[in-house]
Amino acid sequence: DGGITQSPKYLFRKEGQNVTLSCEQNLNHDAMYWYRQDPGQGLRLIYYSQIVNDFQKGDIAEGYSVSREKKESFPLTVTSAQKNPTAFYLCASSIGSGDQFFGPGTRLTVL
Amino acid sequence: SQQGEEDPQALSIQEGENATMNCSYKTSINNLQWYRQNSGRGLVHLILIRSNEREKHSGRLRVTLDTSKKSSSLLITASRAADTASYFCATATFFTPSSSARQLTFGSGTQLTVLP
Q1: Can you give the pLDDT at residue A96?
Q2: B53, B71, B65, B52: which is closest to B5 by C-alpha?
Q3: Which candidate, B34, B68, B39, B36, places its Cα nearest to that of B52?
Q4: Cα distance from B11 to chain A (closest Cα, Å)?
Q5: Which among A30, A42, A58 is the nearest to B2, CB-wise?
Q6: Nearby residues of A16 by Cβ (< 8 Å), 6 or more positions away
Q7: Other C-beta atoms within 10 Å of A79: how many?
Q8: What is the pLDDT of residue B4?
Q9: Which pLDDT does position A2 carry in this prediction?
Q10: Phi, psi of B73 (to 5 degrees)
Q11: Contact A100 B104 (CB under 8 A)
Q12: What is the residue-level pLDDT of chain A in tens, covering all 111 positions?
């Protein structure tokens, strides 16, 4: 099956811990994106990557970090510096400027 | 920053009726896209309309774009209970003049409930 996957589906974090959300795609897409969604709100861009080994900050990058060592993978780390990390996190990918395809999301809850 | 703003925030209709959602935005765009999201799930791309297009159809969906008013509308005809979801508009612009990818800026969505 071709597609974009995210894991885990649900994640619980204690305050002060770093956690890493996985995003993998086998669509051979060059560009990948991470968004955050809060209840009743639209998506906000955290980080994006247009090619391997390159990534740029989005609108709300503070407290997050990413890496893009492989074309297929774009993991997001939510660090302890992110003061309000409880949210729904969505990963997406695209061929250049084409349509973005979204993964199923990871719901992160801070205990 | 949120560029697109949907109106209404919530809409409840009977099955078979038409549903109209509106979206306004602030800056110039390359295109505008509409997405659907079922509760707790990822987004599904519905339809894209380019900045030089005024109307586009796809099945029961009709999208209009008025760049002079910086607004778009999504019409779902003959709605079904399965259409119940949140609908988002997203404006697309290039990150930089030389970038190959586009930034999507989402509105806060319209929650559509179709009653059987």
Answers
A1: 78
A2: B71
A3: B68
A4: 14
A5: A42
A6: A80
A7: 15
A8: 65
A9: 61
A10: -135, 150
A11: yes
A12: 569 999 999 999 998 899 999 999 999 999 999 999 998 888 999 999 999 999 999 999 999 999 999 999 999 999 998 989 999 999 999 987 778 899 999 999 998
Q: Percent of chain A at pLDDT above 90?
A: 81
Residues of A within 8 A of B101 (CB-CB) are 30-31, 33, 48, 50, 94, 96-97
CB-based contact B101 A31, cutoff 8 Å: yes
Strand A31-37 versus strand A43-51 pairing type = antiparallel
Check CB contact under 8 Å for B4 and A42.
yes
Query: Chain B residues with CB inside 8 Å of A44's CB?
Result: 2, 106
CA atoms within a 13 Å half-sphere pointing along the CA-CB vector of B80:
4
DSSP secondary structure, A23-74, as one string = EEE-S--SEEEEEEE-TT--EEEEEEEEETTEEEE-TT-TTEEE--SBTTB-
Yes or no, beta carbons of A97 and B42 under 8 Å apart? no
B87-100 tens-digit pLDDT: 999 998 888 888 87
* Tokens matching residue B4: 């697109």
The number of C-beta contacts closer than 8 angstroms across A and B is: 71
CB within 8 Å: A41 and B108:
yes
- Please check whether residue B72 is in contact with residue B66, taking contact to mean a CB–CB distance below 8 angstroms: yes
In the predicted model, what is the mean pLDDT of chain B?
A: 92
Contact list in A for residue B105 (CB cut-off 8 A) is: 45
Sign of CA dihedral B58, B11, B87, B27: positive
